[in-house]
Every structure is written in C-alpha cells, then in structure tokens.
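Entry for the shared binder. Reason: the reviewer on the internal report wants the predicted structure included alongside the sequence.
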Amino acid sequence: MNRRDFLSFAGSAAIMGGCASSDQAVAPITQPFMTLPYRLDYGRRLIVTASHENGAAIDFIVDTASTKTVFFENVADRITPRPVEAPAARIFGFSSVFSAPYFQIGDIRIGEVVLRDLHAPILSDWPAAERTPQGVLGLDVLSDYVIVVRKDPAIIEFYEADTFVRPSSENNWRTIALTATDFGVTEKALYTFELAFTRTRRIPFLLDTGSNFTACNFPAAEYLKVLPMRARTPPRRDASDVHGERVETYVISGAFQQVGGIERPIKEILISDASFFTEVGYGDRPFGIFGLDSLLQTGFGIDFRRGRLLLQP
C-alpha cells in the first residue's frame, strides 16, 4: 500500500449553513443498492457494525473527515492483525499529529461491500473512555458512493455514484456545494463548505460526521464578533479527538443560522486553539469543524463525486 497522510477526528454538536437550493422536482428517483442500520454510540458517534472474515463484529465510526479506514487496539481482542512492512501513517487529530503502524487486517464485510485483504493503521484505544470502537470507516470507502443518513428509521443508504440523481421517496432535498481540498497535507481530499452566520460573513467548515462536536478557531470567533480573542473565560469544556486526547475549549451558544432557507438553532459551538487548525493552514484564518448533531437535525446525504451536501427541509 502507498503511504498516505490523513486527517481523522472523533468527537458531535450543532450547526448548519451554506448556500442552498432545491433539487428539481422532475429529477428521477434513485434506489440504494445497500441499506445499513446505524446507532449513536461511543459518545453519540455514528456507528455501523461490520464483520471480519472470522465472523467477529467490528464497530466503525462513519467519518467523512478521515481519508482512510483505521482501527483501534481493542480490535486485537476479536481478530489477529499482523504487522506490515510499511512506513507509519501520519494521522492528524484535533489535538496533535500522531504516527501509527500498518497491520494486515484481512477481509472486512460492510453489508454488500467487502474490503479485501485490508491493510490499515492501528491507533491506541481512547485513554479516558470506558469503551472504544474497533475502527473508523473513512473516505477510502465512503467516497466511492453517495450516502444518505436517515433519522427514522436510523439507516444509512448507499447509492452507486455513477447513477445517483436524488434519494428515493423525496423530491425536495436542498443542496449545498462542497469543496474538495487536501489542505496541502493529505493526498486524498476532504470536504468543506462555507457556513453563513450572517448575510455577509461566510467561514469554511470541514464536513465531519465523525465529530461529536462542532468547533471553530479563535480567528473565526473574533471575525463573528461573538467572542473577543482575549475573553477566554468559562464556560469551558474539554473535547476529545480520534486519539482520545482532550483539548480545552470554550463555548458559544444560543445563536441561529439559515440553511436551505430554513432557520435552525445553533446549540453550541466550541472555540479552541487546537493544533489541527494550524496543521491545515488555518492557524490565523477563520475555520471550523462541522459535527454530526447539526446534520442529524434532519436526514442528510453526501454526494462526494459531485460535491453536494443534501439536506431534508
């Protein structure tokens, strides 16, 4: 396998935004080729269960901010990974950058999709958590498809990217443009969109279904005039990333935002000087991370190939 640097976060909180429009009502319906149940677990993260070739169950975080599928040490309780002669993977978390060795995992079945003879990095289990999932399902798998996450029932639909037009059953999905970017540090692109807090202020946010918080840096908070740069006072909270490391953050709450022509509440945004922002070139420029709770206010979909975030009104 080729060496790839990649970004990954595990963290869920709340916002929506961007320039939106309605899909045309005449667009034909597309049917999913695979539907998987999901649950919110391991700190309200988006979890699907796969299976190893030996029959062992593997809980994955579905993470659009990880360019690659990775595993955690506890997977060794269920399978026998073997070391691989390959350079260590460089993994970006919210807190810092880590290196992780590659292992031969074997075959992994995710519904109708089989990952053959998978080689992947293995990270340490989360040090401050009682439970750690077995892995993170990244864009090396997800970006081959269009995924639609529904709330009721709690399912993820997978569509063939080549033939996808719009999700089955609905014709009024709103779309927000996504921008693919590698930030100059990763071979495979991640996805951002501009979040409009007011009519004149737009800030890029990373689309991150693996995060259990929505966060921005201090330049973004200062730009939005919601918190002076030096007013780093309580309430505060420690947020954890994919490595289980904790980062001190501060909280903005009680705001509203327009998305797809609908006003939605912002429950809270965490503000941090986390090293991630500097690593991706936004240490002194406004930037944020867009987490799962915002998306799950309604059903949503991601069309990676066409660069579209799909939202139910």
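Summary line for the report: Residues 1-25 have pLDDT under 50 and may be disordered.
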